# Entry
Amino acid sequence: MASSKDRYHINSILRACTILRRLAQPNQSCRISDLARELDLDRSTVFRILVTLEQCSFVKKDEKTGEYSLGVGVFEVGSAYLRSLDFHAIARQEMIDLATRVHETIHLAALSGNQAVYLDKIDSPGGLGTISKVGSRSPLYCTGVGKVLLAYQPPDRRQELLAGIDYIRFTKTTITSAAELEAELEAIIKRGHGFDRAEHEDDVACVTGPIFNHNGEILAAMSISGAAYR
# Structure
């Protein structure tokens, strides 16, 4: 059944979007005749659409082969979309779902200067009272989120942060040396997640995973915190 909005559709734009999606497939540059045949469109229609898209830099033409492929305009629009995503809103729903499943406290943190800052927190349904608060900061070397954020920094930034750490013992399991911490960071990268073994708060343990952006760079860390005996 047709939608009430169908009467407002502009067919030429719908065809242009179909062509762009076709060109977005891996290694799928095409000639006009190929697109016309595959999409069951008139060759002249495809030509006019491609010329218009080329003017907008959404496609580019190889003058030697006559084939069209995606242009830099698509990248510009796609990058703008990624920048517009409300990361916090997306992450918060995941945190709520995770807290419901595991019945523990969930933290979201990001690197700020030489510390981890808590961006959000979903308290445990079981009522575990961790001392963290949204907006508060924690050391990198003795928290689950801190170690994960540190582990995935670019090498130069990671060494800069390591050099500035003042190792203070909070509990009997706190890491207190650069050698021990570097070994822990390598272990985090190898297994893909990190732990806080009651290193910052007595009897509170965490397991933490990294969150990467579309370029594979670490964006934030999300942790599950609970009583160490669990």
